[in-house]
Design goal:
This protein has about 200 residues and is of the alpha+beta class. It contains three helices and nine strands. Strands 4-3-2-1-5 form a five-stranded antiparallel β-sheet, with no helix packed on it. The protein has a four-stranded antiparallel β-sheet with strand order 6-7-8-9, with no helix packed on it. A hairpin with a 4-residue loop joins strand 7 and strand 8. Helix 1 crosses helix 2. The longest helix is centred in the last third of the chain and has 43 residues. The N and C termini lie far apart (about 55 Å).
Length: about 200
């Protein structure tokens, strides 16, 4: 009998491969597991004999244990996720690969390790420094992208306000504004923010 673990991709035997019959195991048990289905993210319990693997099994990267329980960190290459399981019978939490560095840094910060000064002769401390730098850069890039998107929305509103005043058709998105005018309307949106005391 196949043993399925949290994060493993499974399919209902004897059914066509659809989002309603394919999902991800979220609990670990030798005979029955809970599966979260792809179509609506609902969960239901199924005996393992009614399930078959759908894709490559997960690979365990780290395994931590003590008297209070066991924590496993596993990777599912097919779904591009990392699954964290606490206790052999417990449910798991999925984390996207792109979120893993921030999760690792949060754990180090909670442990007080990331707050210490860095010693360049220590590989561990340098690794933490590089991780903090990477996460900081990712967050800065995400903020910059969000700010740019918000500014584009405001520029589009101002552009359409002018078109409406001149009885011209409105455009649907910022990229529908002619490329040669986009920079001008972004500048107009920035000036509008300044005039209205908006800071971002």
């Amino acid at each position: 009998m196949t043993t399925f673990r949290p994060g493993d991709r499974v399919h209902l035997k004897g059914h066509a491969h659809t989002p309603a019959t394919t999902g991800t195991v979220i609990t670990e048990n030798p005979t029955a597991v809970y599966v979260m289905w792809d179509d609506n993210y609902a969960t239901s319990k199924h005996h393992t004999q009614h399930l078959e693997p759908a894709g490559e099994p997960m690979s365990t990267k780290q395994h931590f244990g003590n008297a209070y329980g066991t924590l496993k960190v596993r990777e599912n290459g097919e779904s591009g996720s990392i699954y964290i399981t606490i206790d052999s019978q417990g449910s798991c939490a999925g984390v996207g690969i792109e979120e893993a560095p921030a999760l690792a840094l949060a754990i180090l910060e909670a442990a007080g390790i990331a707050d210490k000064g860095f010693n360049e002769s220590s590989d561990a401390e340098m690794a933490v420094a590089h991780l903090a730098s990477h996460v900081g850069l990712e967050r800065a890039n995400a903020k910059e992208a969000a700010d740019r998107e918000a500014l584009e929305v405001e520029a589009l509103e101002l552009f359409n306000a002018l078109r409406e005043a001149n009885d011209n058709n409105l455009v649907d998105g910022f990229h529908d504004i002619p490329a040669s005018y986009q920079g001008t309307w972004l500048a107009v949106a920035k000036t509008s923010r300044t005039l209205h005391g908006v800071t971002r």
